[in-house]
Amino acid sequence: MTQNASSKKIIDLPCSQKINDDDVAQNHPDNYFRRDFVKYLAIAIPIMNLPLSSGVNATTKPERRPPQAGDRLTYFQKSKRGQIIKLSDLKELDKPLLVVPFDVENNVVKDGSRYNQILLQKLPSELLSAETKKRSDQGVIAYSAICTHAGCPVTGWMADEKNYMCPCHQSVFNPKDSGVVVSGPATRGLPAIGLKIEADEIILTNTFNSWIGFGKRPK
Ligand code: FES
To answer: How far is the CA of 56 from the centre of ligand 1 (A)?
Structure first.
């Protein structure tokens, strides 16, 4: 446990991998589509005349693909990676868990890009804004674990305010309200991800609602 300048209680979460510029440049989720689409056009269409939707992600390593609807979540912690996280594993108001998507259909843990790291947490539903409620279920929420200021892992949990803090430059995000910035230097909220719960299973319903990390929206 650490204290920040204003003596607010902050709990440090386990730190994820260090920033890797190559990863930042090459593994942005929005780039998956662009890179693979170009390869697809160059190779697949002239030869096979396949429909566009069938080959878009074919060249991306499965473990680097972004989260998608139907994925489950598993622990980032290596000793528990591959173990699917259930609603009953989460305790309300516990610090957020660092997790990664798990493509159960293809049995692939998507831990090949740090941009797939997600903060998963259960908060009292009544604390959530209407917008956040729409993409959550039973108080369970999920956000990108990568700071939108300069890409550090967001590892601080401010238990009293129920906010997340990035330790690099102390940006604070509000997970109760769509991950918006409470205080900078970050100027953009944390990308959120929708989920639902069925029979104790936490199932993603889409991918992130915005681009991951820092900088302008990729073109
Ligand atoms: S990288 Fe998070 S506040 Fe700067």
So the answer is: 32
Nearest CA, atom 4, ligand 1: 169
Residue 66 Cα to ligand 1 midpoint, Å, equals 22
Supply the mean pLDDT for the chain. 81
Reading the block at residue 201, the tokens are 């299973």
Burial of 209 (0-12, 13-18, 19+ CB in 10 A): middle
Q: Which of 146, 148, 171, 172 is the pocket-test mutation for ligand 1 (most atoms within 8 Å of CB)?
A: 171
pTM of the predicted structure, to 2 decimals = 0.77
CA–CA gap between residue 36 and residue 42 (Å, rounded): 10
pLDDT 10s digits, 67-111: 999 999 999 999 999 999 999 999 999 999 999 999 999 999 999
CA 199 to chain centre: 23
